[in-house]
Every structure is written in C-alpha cells, then in structure tokens.
Design goal:
It is elongated, with a radius of gyration of 18 Å. Helix 1 (2-20) packs across helix 2 (41-51). The chain has a single domain, classed as hypothetical protein PF0899 fold (2-Layer Sandwich). The model has no long low-confidence stretch (mean pLDDT 93). It is α+β, with helices and mostly antiparallel strands. It has helices at 2-20, 41-51; strands spanning 25-34, 61-67, 69-72, 79-82, 98-101, 105-113. The strands form two sheets. It has a three-stranded mixed sheet, covered by helices on one side. A three-stranded antiparallel sheet has the order 4-3-5, with no helix packed on it.
C-alpha cells in the first residue's frame, strides 16, 4: 500500500510547517489528488486516520479533493476535462494531447493551531 508511504511524507511536511510557524498542532489538511495519480482516496484517508494517532495531527480532519484529468491539445490549443479514458481533443479530435492536470498529489492547505490560540 503506497498510500501509507505517501501519508508518511505528508506528515514530514506537516511537522516541518508546524515548526516553521511555531504551531502546536495540525487541525485540518486538504490534499489535492489527481484522478490519474494512482492513489485510491479511501485508502489514503484510511492511512491518514491510522498514521495520525499520537502525532501533532491526532485530532485533524482530512479533506481530499479529487482532481479530474485536464487535457490540452497542441494542434488546436483547446483544453478539456475528461472523466473517461478517451484521451482525444474534444474540439478537433486529435490524439496528440498533453495531460496538464490529474496526476498530482499536493498538500493544498494546512490549518495549524498554537497554544492559547
């Protein structure tokens, strides 16, 4: 399950940002996960729930935003969002497309709390 190793990397980021901002804990995390990233959102959420126990994010809530596949066509310059596996341009039909979104895994937002705040 590579979702657990991804969450371990997310927690490295959380610890770094918590130190950087002088915070005492993490209250919320938003991850953007591309539909083609190879990550299963439910498994990622389960890994987060397991991993957070006993950490600075113990009470944190996780929100996962699934990013659809966005294509750009170098032939006509058109862009489209695809939910299916037909990776052709919706404007001109070209199969020469570039994937511009949908493969990423990004820590989009972290909410931190300091003692007394």
């Amino acid at each position: 399950m590579h979702e657990l190793s991804l969450i371990a990397s997310v927690f490295d980021i959380l610890e770094e940002k918590t130190r950087e901002h002088g915070a005492s804990r993490v209250t919320a995390v938003v991850l953007r996960v591309g539909r083609m990233s190879g990550v299963v959102p439910d498994l990622l959420e389960s890994a987060f729930e397991t991993y957070k126990n006993g950490t600075l994010a113990e009470g944190a809530r996780l929100t996962i935003e699934v990013v659809p596949v966005k294509l750009r066509c170098p032939d006509c310059g058109g862009t489209s969002v695809r939910e299916d596996t037909d990776f052709s341009c919706t404007a001109c039909g070209s199969r020469r497309i570039e994937i511009v979104e949908g493969r990423e895994i990004v820590v989009e937002k972290i909410e931190l709390e300091t003692d007394g705040a």
